[in-house]
Amino acid sequence: MSTRKPSLRERKKQQTYEAVSEAAITLFLERGFDRVSVAEVAAAADISKPTLFRYFPAKEDLVLHRFADHEDESARVVAGRPEGTTPLEALRLHHLDGLDRRDPVTGLCDVPEVLAYHRLLYGTPSLVARMYAYQGRSEAALARALDPGSPLPAQLAAGQIIAVLRILAMENWRRIDAGETAGQVHDDAVAAAHVAFRQLEDGLLGAAPADGRGRTGG
By CB distance 3.0 to 4.6 Å, which of 35, 78, 146, 217 could disulfide with 154? Predict the structure, then answer.
């Protein structure tokens, strides 16, 4: 893993990236995604429209950039797992830790700002459609982590794992959006995760990563 510190230019670029996105999300939450133009976002962020598109190729990316840091999260968990730990076990433990930390990615977060963001996301069809592209990249990265050659079995396993994580998160978010607290949902979310990963183990048993460090399942 690289320990190189980002340059000043890289840090400024990241700061601009985040500032533009935050300005956009604020407008979207106030008025609705479809009622705010890219030109208005650019004006609010005090940049030109062409500059905005250099950072964000599509309007939807202004919202979904928060998922960008998580695109290869499952792949990183698998690649960095301890010796003797299977990929599924590493992913299961990582997900359970996220539940305990109320990580928004798990859907188990009742912070008002996070709830508002999720309502914006899941309530806007174009954002939901764009999110599938992010999930596709997550699947590809995980498939490579399971097997660098990314053969069909690894692709199938990755697709199932990413789908399970998405379904678990959506169920947690659905209950919280309906009025339950993260604390009320937590135990059920943990139980659901155990059931889901056991089902994955039963279905993926025998698929092995190329490095020979253990089967994909348990």
Answer: 146
